[in-house]
Amino acid sequence: MNSDSAPSDDNGHGTLVAGVAAAAGNNGRGAAGIDWGVTIHPVKVLGSTGSGLTSNVVKGLTWAADNSMNVINMSLGGPSTSTLQSAVAYAASLGCAMAAASGNDGIAAVTFPAAYPAVVAVGALQADTLATFSNSGPELDVVAPGVAIYTAAKGGGYTYFSGTSAATPFVAGLMALE
Predict the structure, then answer these.
(1) Buried b (16+ CB within 10 A) or exposed e, 135-162
(2) Alpha carbon 156 to chain centroid distance?
(3) Angle (nearest 5°) at CA 87 between 165 and 137
(4) What is the widest separation between alpha-carbon atoms in the chain?
(5) Whether the Cβ atoms of residue 96 and residue 119 lie closer than 8 Å to each other
(6) What is the pLDDT of residues 12-34, one digit of tens each?
């Protein structure tokens, strides 16, 4: 989806997110994800800098929906576009549950795709309060831990991860539990 034929994680962000959602547990190593039994289907929509085109997000979201992904984690955000809104509606029509990051600007405005009604908008908690960086607003649906989350790191090992991108896979992992 990002015009890169290599399946590996270019930036490391995807590995961090996948670890929160699904790292193997009960093995005496590192950290455990929310749903140890889920299968991760990595869909690269952003480049090595962690940014990219909305058109790639749309392609990835459509691919995930067309390939029967039950839960779609979108630890990303940006402005609304009609094509993104259509892709979210399409995925919802196929029964995909979606969670997306609310944004890390510390403002009362949730980014897209999180702000679309069909998507669960996830904010980040620090201790028992909304993290200062977490976006909020009327579209915010839920908050989850989002500061200093210990998770799998690109290339092996473990590290700490903060942001609404770290909070979102907690919610997606719960959505995947049966």
Answers:
(1) bbbebbbbbbbbbebebbbbeeeebebb
(2) 20
(3) 45
(4) 46
(5) no
(6) 999 999 999 999 999 999 999 99
